[in-house]
Amino acid sequence: MYLPLLILFIVLYLIVFRKAIWGIFDPLFVTVVMMGGAAFAVFSLWLNHWADTKYLISFCFTEICLIIGFFISTRFFTKQTYSNKINVLNVNQGFISIFSLIVNIMALALQFFIFSQLGIGLFKEGVNHVSIYDGFGFLKASQGGFSTVAFISFFYKKKLAILNRFDCVVFFILLLAIILSGSKSGILRPISIFFIVEYYFYRRTGKTIAHVKWYNLVILCTFPLLVIVILDNVDMFQAIILFGARLIGSGDIFVMGYNDDVIRHISANSSLQYILYPGWGSILKTIGFSITPPVVIGVDIYDYYYNAADAGPNARLNFLTYYFWGTLGGSFICFLIGYYIGYFRCKYGKYKHNMFVFFVSTILYISILSIISDLNIFLNDFFWTFAVFVVLYFIAQIVYKGITLPHE
């Protein structure tokens, strides 16, 4: 009964969003699949009397408002062809080359430092790709920022046909690092970045989006499966099942939080602190300020069940907004977030091009959908990646001017 119901929910969500999804590599595709999985989890809990009706009502209200906000802003957005008015790419290849060189060197240096100091997560017992950074959260955030900027830089230069061998070497080393970290879904990040950059250029130039050859796709999909085989000691078929469950099993926060009203035992009491701490709060704490970080909601719930605070489900937007603002307030927040997600997707690539704007908008595009799955992840991801890019951009500006000014 449950498998057909799960498939039904996912199919219904895909039908609703079918005109908004630009392709199977669009991050929205995975997001919509996970939304369907989450809705299935909530409905199943209510159907089996494991969750109060008020939770089902709050989920439906917040979910519907999120979707309405999204489609109002996009006006039922469909695939739009490019406009000749934006068919211009003003690029400074010299600066881009210097920038990418600095990014690649820094990303490699940080990755090798992490491996030398913390070890390789895939081969360490008793840890995962998150817990290995215990006490070194700054390194984890920085590494994610550097690798993301490096991947964007790689695909950007690829579209401009100015890649060099060092770019390719760094790209494959960073891919290997994702696998060695033990992350089961980390490989999805460079795949998403590839699609996003391709789509950006498509919207500006009208050139067909490059297709990933089927054998390359098979190779990429094999990586997370191999990680699961090694970490969970299962065969390849079981690994495929587990990976699929990972993609659709996004309703665990509802299963653990709604059941027996566990949501009432969450300790976080300040929405402002919870929202503002990721980023600036963690920086101030790192440099010595006495700041108490809020307990992450998913970790708090996990600790309630298992008396351990080293893991936890993602606090999905429906759950988070209901907890802090109730059904009505949460629905309003979800509407606004859905509206701005849809609005940004419509505007992506349809503005005057320069490298700085391209990188910032692409970083936001990569991160923005994670608001739906976990606001905390979005705030951390965007803040650190944006901060890394800005610092590297201005370093590259200084180096570039130092090289070019004497010759002018």
What does this structure look like?
The structure is a single chain. 70% of the residues lie in helices and 0% in strands. The protein starts with a helix and ends with a helix. By secondary structure, it is an all-alpha fold. The chain crosses the membrane at residues 28-48, 55-74, 94-115, 162-180, 186-202, 214-231, 237-258, 279-302, 322-343, 355-376, 382-400. This is LPS biosynthesis related polysaccharide polymerase. Keywords: Membrane, Transmembrane, Transmembrane helix.
List the topology elements:
Elements: H1 2-16, H2 27-47, H3 53-74, H4 93-118, H5 137-159, H6 165-181, H7 188-205, H8 214-232, H9 236-248, H10 252-258, H11 271-286, H12 297-306, H13 317-347, H14 355-368, H15 370-373, H16 375-404
Transmembrane segments: 28-48, 55-74, 94-115, 162-180, 186-202, 214-231, 237-258, 279-302, 322-343, 355-376, 382-400
Protein name: LPS biosynthesis related polysaccharide polymerase
Keywords: Membrane, Transmembrane, Transmembrane helix
Distance between the termini: 73 Å
> Which strand-content bin applies to the residues?
under 5%
Oligomeric description of these chains: single chain
What's the total count of β strands? Answer: 0
